[in-house]
Amino acid sequence: MKSLIATTFLGMPLVAWGGITVLTVLVVQILIGMRILKVDFKYHKPVAFTLLGLALVHATAALIYIFG
Ligand code: HEM
Prior knowledge:
Blueprint: H1 2-6, E1 8-9, E2 12-13, H2 14-33, H3 44-67
Antiparallel strand pairs: 1-2
Helix pairs in contact: 2-3
Protoporphyrin IX containing FE binds at residues 26, 29-30, 33-34, 44-45, 48, 51.
């Protein structure tokens, strides 16, 4: 598992790409919440749970990357 997490893509480990993905979804979620991104507000809730899932996966991967 650690070797997969540490595999590099464009010179950066996959765990770091995961962090960038989480941050991107977070920014999208805030833009939806602030009504800057004009998509149907019904997406606010599923994006919140997607964010939670991605953040948990990313945090677990980061802990394995450091300590595993
Ligand atoms: C990390 C960022 C955020 C997360 C995870 C998040 C998550 C959520 C969740 C789970 C709900 C409940 C949805 C439902 O029950 O249908 C909600 C509702 C809402 N959020 Fe967010 N939110 C975020 C950011 C924001 C921001 C930045 C704003 C606006 C500045 C915002 C405005 C609202 C509003 C207006 C509601 C509806 C409240 C109501 O039921 O009347 N959210 N949000």
